[in-house]
Here is the input.
Amino acid sequence: MSPGTDSAGDPGEGPILVVDFGAQYAQLIARRVREAHVYSEIVPHTATAVELMARRPAGIILSGGPKSVNETPTPTVDPAIYDTGVPILGICYGAQLLTLQLGGEVSRTGRGEYGRTPLTVTGSSPLFCDWPSDVEVWMSHGDAITGVPPGFTATAASADAPVAALQHAERSIYGVQFHPEVVHTERGADLLERFLYDVCHCLPLWTHTSIIESQVQAVRAQVGSSPVLCALSGGVDSAVAAALVHKAIGDQLTCVYVDTGLMRAHESEQVEETFRRQFHIDLVHVKAADRFFEALAGVTDPEAKRKIIGELFIRIFEEVAREQVLGSGPPGLAGYLVQGTLYPDVIESGSDSAATIKSHHNVGGLPDDLAFDLVEPLRLLFKDEVRAVGEELGLPHDIVWRQPFPGPGLAVRIVGDVTPERADILRAADSIVVEEIRRAGLYRDLWQSFAVLPAVRTVGVMGDGRTYAYPIVIRAVTSDDAMTADWARLPYDLLERLSSRIINEVEGVNRVALDITSKPPGTIEWE
Ligand code: XMP
Here is the structure.
């Protein structure tokens, strides 16, 4: 199978299309389908049945959505899909929509169901194979299906959803009011597998090995013998993209790592060790700390810092591209640029062309005359798939599971002047935070955990002497997507260790504080 193309061979090789009616419901369903080793794609609800059929789907899932089917206007789907013979599963809003479109009834009963809800299986269904008659499922609905369409039967009920599941088995159309994609639904994963394997007859072809193989082929076909460049940041996405492209085209790939002087402790050594020594990738390591500190001298405004760092990064990247990569080829040689764009970026951009504009923006906008085309080997993947692919490619755990780090690096965690001395203080403190959080086994549970250096100094006493030095602020948050975040409740003994180690081991620090601000109203970073 080659995901992303129109040419699935066997019917069971086609993708599962997840029709998106808004919010994040569709993404979770698509991930669960892939966890069951079937390739899934998210498609907008505005796509016509002809457009959907052109993807030769093995099945279609109508996702949940934030709206009520009885509101107008409300997102809908081309009803011609019900006559294609392709199996359909409606979930929550999707189940209500197919009910309404096929002649059934959905009403506001006044009693919604939210959270864990007991469900009674009332009829036989291939989706409920070997289920006990009572299970607990996750519900989240205000409207309820109150009448099934002609030819349909109800197969499950709950206290406030008389039709909690319905089906027309001959037409392969199914609906469930509850959310099988949510972990709190007992047997939810099993229900999805039954739909994929028993109803749609999918083949379990989506594995980490098959992802790597298909992307290796795709990259080779795209770039031919042209030179390919990749900016490594030390983060997981660019690292996995680089490793994957290197597997495809070997020495045609040159990686550029710009050390801005604002990287985390040991980041540069780790990039060198992994990419140059372990993977034997042609790596240009630009040591540009002096240039960055010079450009940042006296700058305290957060946005000005970001702009300066972004522009200087591009200038340096451009110099390397012209002098060391494109310069060595024939005149007018065009190259390719690897981007670590992920599937959620592609979905959120809404269309292929919008995704490309966003990707360009991610590298800060390269000058047009560099004439790079983009190679995006991760554009079909969710973050958890990227990490799994990274592990399969042999990247170290430390890189694959690294917490997110902002493009401008430590500069946005140093409030006020960014100097080499202040960057050293923050780096040393940050390294202790990361080490102790890892030792406490919390590193993967936290979205981010790091140190911040404010622009004030305070009085302290150490030994017999008065000190006048900086505080370090510990910032640790939990989050799913960085859009919102909660401050992490770190154990007291861990906080005590952090405080004592930072004050004893980092010269220039005499106080440690904890940031207990959620987002909103705070942001995760301090600048
Ligand atoms: P905030 O601070 O806005 O951050 O809550 C949300 C997430 O984005 C990261 N971040 C950045 N990433 N360039 C980046 O590449 C930036 O300028 C930048 N600012 C914030 C931040 O680390 C968090 O994960």
The pocket of xanthosine-5'-monophosphate is lined by residues 306, 404, 406-408, 412, 448, 482, 519, 523-525 (CB under 6 Å). The chain has a mean pLDDT of 91. The radius of gyration is 27 Å.
